[in-house]
Amino acid sequence: MKDQEIDFSDIPPLDPHFFKNAKLRLPKPKPTVTMRLDPDVLEWFKRQGKGYQTRINAILRMYMEVQQARSH
């Protein structure tokens, strides 16, 4: 779907009042870490394309959340 085809008629326009009360929330910066990974694991993630570090982080986060849920 192209942008021109999207129906925005049910969304109110953003006016100065909205921006007066809006708050900018930036994500917390992620620390830089050094990790040792098997070369084939790293290469596999890199072959998936741009954003491979973000994907590795997402997988580690899912694992962490599952482990936390199990411990409760």
List keywords for this structure.
72 residues; mainly alpha; 47% helix
Silhouette: elongated
Supply the helix-strand structural class: mainly alpha
> What's the number of helices?
3
| Series of secondary-structure elements, N-terminal to C-terminal | HHH
Main β sheet profile: none
Kindly state the number of beta strands: 0
The percent range for helix content is: 40-55%
Low-confidence stretches: none
What is the CA-atom radius of gyration, in angstroms?
20 Å
Q: Which strand-content bin applies to the residues?
A: under 5%
Separation of the first and last Cα atoms? 44 Å
Mean pLDDT: 94
Structure description:
- The chain has 72 residues and is mostly helical.
- It has a domain at 30-72.
- 47% of the residues lie in helices and 0% in strands.
- It is built from three helices and no strands.
- It has helices at residues 16-21, 39-47, 52-70.
- It is elongated.
- The termini are far apart.
- The model has no long low-confidence stretch (mean pLDDT 94).
